[in-house]
Structures are given as structure tokens and as C-alpha cells.
Specification:
OB fold (Dihydrolipoamide Acetyltransferase, E2P); five-stranded mixed beta barrel; alpha+beta
Length: 123
């Protein structure tokens, strides 16, 4: 009985270590774009930089979720919480196109579990 419990506990500890290694803390800035437009973009960096806020707020675009595209064209998809934060920011910004943001969170592959999303001044 004790051996089985020890094996189970060690297995759980190992799984937790693997998960902790997969999720790394990141802070990046870039341009917010909806996933529908990002998926169809030929030049993702240029498309994100000039992407209209009004487009990102269209029902089909909002439903697709959002990504942040960095200066080196790396794309970070936002998790469900991040998508909600992005939609709120898009609805309240005065920026008309090329919404620059900073995100913080844990990266899991190409998706970020967002803990903070803020607008960045383009100055």
C-alpha cells in the first residue's frame, strides 16, 4: 500500500515539474489583431500594425479571439481571459488602428495565459 502511494505521489510530482517547465513567464509588446485576420494575413507584421479597431470588434472577429504580434513577427495567441481583456480594451481605446499593447502571462506553446494586458503609447 505504501509503495503504491509513493509511486503515485512521485508520478504527480514529476507531472507537475513537466507542466512548470512548459509554462514560462513572459512580457511582450506588439500589435493586437483578431485571429481571423491574422490567419489570412500575408504579411502578419504589417497587417497587425495597420489593423483597424473597428474590424477587430466585428462579431466574427471577436469570436475568433485575439493575438499579439511582436516587432519580430512572433505571434502570441491569447487565452480566453486574455481575449476578454483584449475585447474590453478595444471597446474603450481611442486608437483607431494599430493598437499597441503589452501582455504579461505564462506562455504555453503559442498561447499566452494572460494575467495583464495594457495599451502602450505609440510615441
Amino acid at each position: 500500500m505504501n509503495r503504491k502511494l509513493l509511486v503515485i505521489l512521485l508520478s504527480l510530482a514529476f507531472a507537475a515539474m513537466l507542466y512548470a517547465q512548459d509554462a514560462k513567464s513572459i512580457k511582450v509588446s506588439g500589435y493586437l489583431i483578431d485571429n481571423a485576420c491574422a490567419d489570412s494575413a500575408k504579411d502578419l507584421g504589417a497587417r497587425a500594425k495597420d489593423h483597424a479597431v473597428s474590424c477587430a470588434l466585428m462579431d466574427s472577429c471577436e469570436t475568433a479571439g485575439y493575438s499579439v504580434v511582436t516587432a519580430d513577427n512572433k505571434r502570441y495567441k491569447l487565452n480566453e481571459k486574455g481575449n476578454g481583456m483584449a475585447a474590453d480594451l478595444l471597446k474603450n481605446t481611442k486608437t483607431k488602428k494599430g493598437l499597441k499593447v503589452a501582455i504579461e502571462g505564462s506562455a504555453n506553446g503559442d498561447t499566452v495565459d494572460v494575467t495583464k494586458l495594457t495599451e502602450v503609447s505609440s510615441n
